[in-house]
Amino acid sequence: MNCIFCKIINGEIQSKKIYEDEKVYAFYDINPEAPVHFLVIPKEHIISANEISEINSNIISHIFLVINKLVRELGINKEGYRIVNNCGELGGQTVDHMHFHVLGGRGLKWPPG
């Protein structure tokens, strides 16, 4: 598979990992948009939120549990943070592997752009 996130999960491409378990992998973004900017991705190759089904939907709750753990460990849980999932080309998705950006450590504006 030619997916950059699958290659990161498999160790073929280096990343600054902050968490891993049997279901997900989390790592810092290589082009951070905030002082804290990491991604949480399912290990299963799910293209986008459009691919969520009854069979794989449990991964979403697990991803949010991991995000909850990491924002507490990184100390951004009290100040606030943003969770972003881009879906499809017009939604800004640039990698065809579902992923969640977590940004914090600074004020975040709305709308994002």
Automatic annotation (TrEMBL):
Pfam families named among the record's database cross-references: HIT (PF01230)
Domain HIT residue range list: 4-113
Name of the protein in its database record: Histidine triad (HIT) family protein
PROSITE patterns referenced in this protein's UniProt entry, alphabetically: HIT_1 (PS00892), HIT_2 (PS51084)
GO molecular function: catalytic activity
Domain of life of the native organism: Bacteria
Positions of short motif Histidine triad motif: 97-101
CDD domains: PKCI_related
